Hints:
Blueprint: E1 6-9, E2 16-19, E3 40-44, H1 56-60, E4 74-76, E5 81-87, H2 99-107, H3 109-115, H4 117-121, E6 123-128, E7 135-141, E8 153-154, E9 159-162, E10 174-179, E11 189-190, E12 192-198, E13 205-208, E14 215-217
Parallel strand pairs: 1-12
Antiparallel strand pairs: 2-3, 2-14, 3-10, 4-9, 5-6, 5-8, 6-7, 7-10, 10-11, 12-13, 12-14
Amino acid sequence: MTTNPIVLDLPFRGRWLARNSPARRVPSHGTHALGTTYAIDFIAVDEHGRSAPSNWRSWLAVEPPEAFLGFGLPILAPIAGTVVAAHDGEADHEARRSQLTLVPYVLGQAGRLRAGPNAIAGNHVILALGPSGPYVALVHLRRGSVRAEVGDVVAAGDVLGECGNSGNSTQPHVHVQATDSVDWAGATGLPIAFRFRGAMTQNGETVGVPRESEIVEPPGIAEGRRDGRSGPPLRKFPRIRGTQI
Length: 245
């Protein structure tokens, strides 16, 4: 059965690179586990497509997450909903762009899985779009940045937290996915699409799934205002308490 995708706004401002896109393959992350079937990752980049400056550490060692453009940038609600899960307190790991540093990281994957969903998702927020779902998760947020609380009713564009490197993450990015359940173990991933401006789209703006390695930004961003911190003032969501879903 074909399911229409849930259409979302991009959960950020500025230029971001799409990785592990379901436009390339499904399941996008190589597994259906934890509802990641149609998940996608976004990495903030500069005008040259770089997430951070390169130096000897990029090739041989781990790097501090603070060196990356995306670390600490606001992560926004991509759609209106009710917060049904909000987790903070997980550490932001050192980044690993070097193949040498990825080997021990991969070997530790089994341990992270045994530690439970928070060790994989890190700091995160889950929004319910209705009384029985579906649900949209924003994952790997910066420790100490999560503003949302369970029961908050948010609008698209409200600040939920900041981009981080917590959980199962090798460099600062935001992971977005939709599921039919908030139970990570039993969740089924649902298709998602985005409103975006991308270099690979014929007319510049589209609704769809960004292609692998496509650099995207929200529609309507004028030239000279593409920094992730620019644009109109970010709106903090009001503390409206709805029925917990």
